[in-house]
Request: fold
Amino acid sequence: MHTLIACLRLARTDSIGPTRWRQLMARYHTPQAALDALPSLRPKGRPAATPPPVADIEQEIDATYRLGGQFVTLLDDTYPLLLRNCPDAPPVLSVLGQISGLHQAGVSVVGARNASAHGIRFAGALATELVESGLSVISGLARGIDRAAHMGALHRQGLTIAAIAGGLDRPYPPENATLQAEIAERGVVVTEAPLGTVPTNRHFPRRNRLIAGLGLGCVVVEAAPHSGTLITARLAAEYGREVFAVPGTPLEPRYRGSNNLLRTGAILTESVADILPHLPP
Reply:
């Protein structure tokens, strides 16, 4: 418990992101030693980093346990290996559901929130094909394509992982609260945000790191130019994952981003048969 408290205090310190957390751990070896060293690391002319009080972290831990949640840190063997190998992997994950599910080989399926009926139908069918092939389906529990992907996986009793932007106790959007509860019961809900965090725009790119990092590959079903979906695809490519994209009519703005991915090297995807040969063994 003491190590978990120290991990969380270090991770919840405002000026310490994932990269800095790793640097401190490499130098000081334990989170408590890193916390003890923070006052001596104050930049000139700036206040020292101030970790949250122990009492606040203990309250977060107790509330997470009461919710049925668990924590996984970069110090734990149970931390998902694919995500661990990403340079900006979150130091601490909060999890509802089966932590073991984070280790199952899976593919991320992402796309537009205001998706077309065809896109939603395709995403659901593709997710079903993926779980029937023994893979999990990872997405972001947003409206549109994300929701369809999760439901397509659950349709065949498959494993689906929802990476969310807010706290475990703040389902977003609200209409997906029931779906989040079902995924927590049958799959995995994961976030790096503390309990009580209401998602805002700045939280979603961080959530996209989880979606990209947990999967062996990333499928983009629909994406407008400059959309958050394309951030996930870019991160997946940076992490060395294969990027797949579903082609669409150039007359539909929702396909311009995904069509551009195809133009720049993504694998054209019309079914699971286009995905499986390109995944690592």
Q: What stands out?
A: The chain has a mean pLDDT of 94. The domain at 100-278 is CATH 3.40.50.450 (Rossmann fold). Strands lie at 70-73, 92-97, 106-110, 136-139, 160-163, 188-191, 217-220, 242-245, 267-268. The radius of gyration is 19 Å.
